[in-house]
């Protein structure tokens, strides 16, 4: 018996169950389940009519909005392999994606189409897709066929294409639904403000699969977000720390008690930011751990456990919670987190070709961690980020945690510059910083061992970030090297060029 995934039938079922109920609301237009079904199948049939089939790469290059959702479903039910392209990608980044995963077609709109000209892919404009009055039920797809490509963040080099087959993509969706803190239903709304091509797409599907509504905004749109938050109809928010920080700044002093859960992850949540989130939403913050190589859920820390962690005495690292069902975790001899699960990727593609995971299935994450006596995973930092200075190994995350949340200062990134005398010299780089931030920073790190103290402090207008909004430590280091010179020796300093 061939293992198949009935993507088309599942979407028809949602249409039959929920029909005219709102599936997607992007703050400007709404899309019902019936319209989602008609538009997605129209796209799928159009792709198949152009010869697209199993294993063919089809890209989606669209901003957040209703079209991004039905295009996602349409490519999926066609049987092609969906290649998510962040709408923030430049032409050069898309050319790199095309080199790794040659796309026969790219779904886009008229506004973005010029960026994609002459890349070797046929463009399908979403404005040209006419909804079908009676969409057919398309054949189920083979579970082992390529199903989805996610690009790594590229923080340590050029992005890799991470490949999931159809079966693992389907199972990941099942797993995410299984660990939801409550079951959404018709009328239940989740607010999504991060790029749909990343975690927002999975969270949206989890809500839609239960008849709920995904409120998909194109970023943290203050007016639209405020309208949702104040409506009292919002059940949940997907808000990584960068989004939480923007919400806290935009709605300082307001409380939104109707929100039952704030889903967060992708990067460490600082005590200061947790306190702000708790003041806004109550003890509703839930932390998860996910990787591009193994999408959520890997671990889960429910709101009550999250509150207990932040109320307890400070501990080494950031608590990420307990393993999700089917996920195995271990710490290797180098202190690195390794994992394996049934819904992890099947391999990655780089300039040298396709690379399958190790035969035993254990993926080395590159993250440093520990597992406590309660079985919870704690994140200590990235192996590639560990600073070696004066014979010591230093985690920049620990220093950043001490510096987080300073008044009159934006985000802070800790990097290291090569030094003949020390091996590496610790530098703290801040954005939007008050002139007196250096003195405040020195007071903040006073409780850390002296060898962990930054030797220099640099203020910049903005810290470089990748398309996912994460600070790129490598790019920050390159920025410092291009604008400053290290004065080496026993008492190092930096000098602006």
Describe it.
- With 497 residues, the chain is α/β, with parallel strands linked by helices.
- It folds into 2 domains: 377 residues, 3-Layer(aba) Sandwich (Rossmann fold); 110 residues, 2-Layer Sandwich (GMP Synthetase, Chain A, domain 3), CATH 3.30.300.30.
- The chain has 13 helices and 30 strands.
- Strands 3-2-12-11-13-14-15-16-17-23-22-19-18 form a 13-stranded mixed beta sheet, with helices on both faces. Strands 7-6-4-5-9-10-20-21 form an 8-stranded mixed beta sheet, sandwiched between helices. A 3-stranded mixed beta sheet has the order 26-27-28, sandwiched between helices.
- α1 runs antiparallel to α2 and α2 packs across α3.
- It is globular and about 75 Å long.
- The termini are far apart.
- The mean pLDDT is 93.
- It comes from Bordetella genomosp. 12.
- This is O-succinylbenzoate--CoA ligase.
- InterPro entries: AMP-bd_C, AMP-bd_C_sf, AMP-binding_CS, AMP-dep_synth/lig_dom, ANL_N_sf.
- Keywords: Ligase.
């Amino acid at each position: 018996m061939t293992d198949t995934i009935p993507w088309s039938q599942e979407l028809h079922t949602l249409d039959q169950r929920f029909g005219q109920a709102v599936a997607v609301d992007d703050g400007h237009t709404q899309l019902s389940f019936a319209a989602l079904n008609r538009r997605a199948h129209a796209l799928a049939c159009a792709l198949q009519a152009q010869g697209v089939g199993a294993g063919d790469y089809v890209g989606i290059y669209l901003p957040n909005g209703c079209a991004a959702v039905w295009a996602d479903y349409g490519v999926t039910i066609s049987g092609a392999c969906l290649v998510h392209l962040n709408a923030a990608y430049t032409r050069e980044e898309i050319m790199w994606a095309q080199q790794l995963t040659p796309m026969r077609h790219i779904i886009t709109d008229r506004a973005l189409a010029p960026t994609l000209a002459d890349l070797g892919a046929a463009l399908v404009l979403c404005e040209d897709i006419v909804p079908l009055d009676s969409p057919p039920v398309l054949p189920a797809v083979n579970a082992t066929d390529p199903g989805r490509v996610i690009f790594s963040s590229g923080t340590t080099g050029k992005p890799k294409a991470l490949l999931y087959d159809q079966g693992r993509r389907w199972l990941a969706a099942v797993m995410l639904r299984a660990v939801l803190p409550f079951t959404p239903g018709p009328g239940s709304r989740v607010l999504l403000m991060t790029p749909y091509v990343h975690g927002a797409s999975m969270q949206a599907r989890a809500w839609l699969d239960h008849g709920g509504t995904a409120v998909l905004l194109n970023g943290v749109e203050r007016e639209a977000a405020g309208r949702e938050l104040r409506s009292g109809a919002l059940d949940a928010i997907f808000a990584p720390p960068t989004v939480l920080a923007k919400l806290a700044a935009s709605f300082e002093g307001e409380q939104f008690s109707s929100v039952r859960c704030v889903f967060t992850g992708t990067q460490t949540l600082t005590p200061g930011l947790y306190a702000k989130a708790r003041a806004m939403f109550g003890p509703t913050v839930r932390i998860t751990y996910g990787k591009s190589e193994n999408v959520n859920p890997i671990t889960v820390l429910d709101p009550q456990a999250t509150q207990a962690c932040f109320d307890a005495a400070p501990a080494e690292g950031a608590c990420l919670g307990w393993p999700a069902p089917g996920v195995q975790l271990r710490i290797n001899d180098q202190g690195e987190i390794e994992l394996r699960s049934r819904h992890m990727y099947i391999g990655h593609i780089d300039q040298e070709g396709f690379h399958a995971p190790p035969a035993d299935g254990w993926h080395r994450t590159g993250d440093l961690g520990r597992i406590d006596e309660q079985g919870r995973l704690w994140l200590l930092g990235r192996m590639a980020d560990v600073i070696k200075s004066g014979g010591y190994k230093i985690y920049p995350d620990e220093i950043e945690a001490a510096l987080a949340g300073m008044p009159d200062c934006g985000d802070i990134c800790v990097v290291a510059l090569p030094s003949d005398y020390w091996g590496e010299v610790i530098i703290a780089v801040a954005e939007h910083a008050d002139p007196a931030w250096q003195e405040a920073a020195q007071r903040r790190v006073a409780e850390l061992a002296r060898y962990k103290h930054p030797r220099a402090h640099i203020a910049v207008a903005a810290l470089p970030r990748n398309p996912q909004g994460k600070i790129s430590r490598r790019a920050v280091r390159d920025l410092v090297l291009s604008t400053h010179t290290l004065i080496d020796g026993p008492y190092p300093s930096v000098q602006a060029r």
